[in-house]
Amino acid sequence: MRVLPTRGEQLAVSPAFDDAAVVDHQDAIGSQNGAQTMDDEKRRPAGAEFFQRLLRTQLGGVVDGTGGCGRRVMKTANPADLYNMSSLNTMWRLNVMVARMTMAASYTERTLQLVRQAGVLRPRDLDQHETPRQYLRILEQAGVIHRAGRGLYTIEGQRVTENHTIAEACKRVPRAVVCLVSALRLHGLTTQMPHEVWMAMDRKARKPKVDHPPLRIVRFSGDSLTVGIQRRKIEGVEVRLYDAAKTVADCFKYRNKIGLDVALEALRDCRKQRKATVDDLWAAARVCRVANVMRPYMEAIG
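Given the sequence above, the corresponding structure tokens read:
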């Protein structure tokens, strides 16, 4: 990327770049070979001719160290004066600076767009988009995004729902499935307000190390783990949970953990709200191997 001022204009760069850009014309050249030093007056014609040719073919203007950064000043430039004010090294450094600023702006915009799309974003999610993670910290310091928890970022001012903790949990443990009381809450089949997020994982899976939100991990296996999984979006996060029939059957299977009253309430509400048919409930009961346990309650409800 090059800085190409329009012909007849002068690009003025802030004094912050002057120290790094200005070349000391009093330095001698060729002294390392024992040659005699040459002052500015002797070497100026060749240098001026070189930069005049550079102006015609590449730049169409000059870089001055007397104005604001990126400010264009309508002023006729004398190509021969370019050698006195700057050097090719100055232009190269300026091009690098502009390229870095452009790249940073591109990464910042891309990071912000990814946070909006994801709802809740983890730093590792940026890796597949080849975006440095440091831009999350930059946006956080600018007040554009919010650090919802360790390794979780959301848009500042984003509307938080009552299921926000479930969305965070699914973002931290994407392979787990929301189950039992938390799944009942999502289906509207309970009045319970669990302070933990109930999630099902394979028996051989490693227990996740998550400080927030608090998780309650339940070990499933076989068809009990894989059957009846639904997907829905909560605050932009894909949440995996068991359907209503499977969740009710799981409640009877783990009635000693959550209480039989919670399972019975879920069964009544499920039939009343028509969240699942009788056949669906029987099929889920067979998968969870609680058909005999559920039979008297199913017959009582009808």
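DSSP finds 13 helices and ten strands in the chain. Try to locate this feature in the token string yourself.
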